[in-house]
Amino acid sequence: MDYISYIRRMDYDELENFAEHIREYIIDVISKNGGHLASNLGVVELTLALYRVYNPYEDFIIWDTGHQTYTHKLLTGRWDLFSTIRKFNGLSGYTNIFESYVDRFGAGHVGTAISAALGIEQALRLNNSSANVVVVIGDGALTSGQSLEALNQIKTLNSKIKIIINNNSMSISKNVGALSHLFDKLRSSKVYLETKKTLKKSMSFELKNELKRIRDAIKVSISGEDFFEGLGLKHFGPVDGHNLKELEDELKRIKDYDYPTILTVNTVKGKGFENSEVNPESFHSAGKFDVSSGVFIKSKGIISYSEAFGKMLTKIAEKDEKVVAITAAMKSGTGLNEFAKRFPERFFDLGITEQMCVTFAGGMSTLGFKPVFAVYSTFLQRGFDQIIHDIALQNLPVIFAIDRAGVVGEDGPTHHGVFDIAYLKMIPNMKIYAPMDIQDLLNIMHTVFKFNIDGPVAIRYPRDYEFGKFEELYDKIRLVDLDKWQILNEGKDIAIIATGYPTKSALSVAKRNGWTLVYARSVKPIDKETLSWVFENHEEVFSIEEGVINGGFGESLSRYGKIRILGIEDRFVPHGSRKELLKILMLDEEGIENQIKGVIERRKNYEDSNRTW
Ligand SMILES: Cc1ncc(C[n+]2csc(CCOP(=O)(O)OP(=O)(O)O)c2C)c(N)n1
Ligand SMILES: CC(=O)[C@@H](O)[C@H](O)COP(=O)(O)O
Ligand SMILES: [Mg+2]
Fold first, then answer.
1. Which of 323, 422, 497, 574 has the least CB density, counted as fewest CB within 10 Å?
2. Residue 354 marked as a ligand binder
3. Is residue 480 situated within a structural domain?
4. What is the ipTM for the molecules in this complex?
5. Do 447 and 544 belong together in one domain?
């Protein structure tokens, strides 16, 4: 069904009913699949109005981050498939160019849309095409470094793009930084909105112009020169993002302007579902929930790595006033809520600025502080140069708490944290630890802070959980020899050297088969003594890691002897549950056993066939 011509035939009452229908559908599916509920509920009307004015099949609509594109997907040929969203083999939770050509540019990370749109616009020009280029970007994403870099080029590139700010005052948590205050002021220019509402029915042309003049005066008076106008864009709005008629009028107005334009649209994150309106942060990246109560469906008695990390850091900070925590807009995801409440003066949410966070941590460390940058593995990719240039080169003692290391599940390839071992391991001075379980995460943290570190340290752990309570684990913390590998099972012929999460599965396999299992808590430095012992005493040696093989842990061991590496082959991993993905990657217990037995079998067959000859 072609929903674009369908919505264009509707009157506003029909359109409003359709918006409600879309909301109900999204709520129903996301309550079962999990997903970015609040962001999507906020842009239903915006997407409908946008696609009545622009045609996504002809124009180029670029959605920043792509996490708010559920209505876009529903309207562009994916209505019937929507129940598969974020499931293995189902629709992606983001824009994805392999899924549909109207997903003009794939995303998942924040802040790429304006850059991509400017590139697309220049390419269209070279092709003599007059298609429109429109960006939809959240107020959080607009504050990220790459967005600002791109905004700075709009005038120079003689661009005509239209940027729509979806201003809901929220990143995942409350948006931070000076620009967020500017957006708040714009949002609450109620004088303008209310005057407009009162006058709109009887508005003459003169009155309309007078109103625009008032609006412009308000914008300038609250912010000095309008920030966006200073960058060469015409700035319109704010417009009520849930009023279809107003939205459409304003979108039509900017469509034909021959200059780059930015339109501020005020939306309510989580709109239309009471629980997500009241608590948009919890419903940003929502797990499964019960629609009637709005309560999340969670297993009881579990603790996640993130939660354990956050609690442990709070404990450590109680005793050590030099410990500070830094996040790039991921306070709750990285488990830092408690720390932020306990030590507000030692907690820094710097917004979506991973590069800045790395260098900021470096700066603090030069004055004797112990900065911990808690960051998802995939987002730390943004800070790669800063890690080398600002931290490692100066051997600064900064701790990188790398959450979501390994496959993350339903967010998929944009978010899997499978590259960090490879991109960190090659950096001189960098030490990398990968705990096999939550207990050892706490042990590593305890040890790292006990003995002052003398350079950068990364601790990587997965988006996973265990049954148990923090207090019980905390009671058992102990100092560990960080750089010494542990022989957890001594067997014969076959040895496995495992690091991080797959260690537990590998241990079960080793025990069952009488093989040796060495736990490499330290990815770098390599424990050469234990490694030599392994090579000298076993016929076949395997390594296991939840990360890419190219440039990974196993590859660094291959310099010292013959090793078979189990990890992630040279391809992007799709989305699906973590369990499903570990299975297809053959990194769960069954997969590890089958891979090793397969090698042994092939070797035996080869030897047998050689003997026959
Ligand atoms: C580089 C990067 N850092 C962090 C994130 C995590 N993240 C996803 S959405 C988001 C907030 C975006 O806020 P906004 O753009 O205002 O969108 P909203 O959800 O409010 O509509 C963050 C921090 C990310 N996807 N990419
Ligand atoms: C869009 C985005 O990047 C985040 O919202 C991310 O999906 C959060 O992931 P978690 O659910 O693992 O915190
Ligand atoms: Mg926002």
1. 574
2. yes
3. no
4. 0.99
5. no
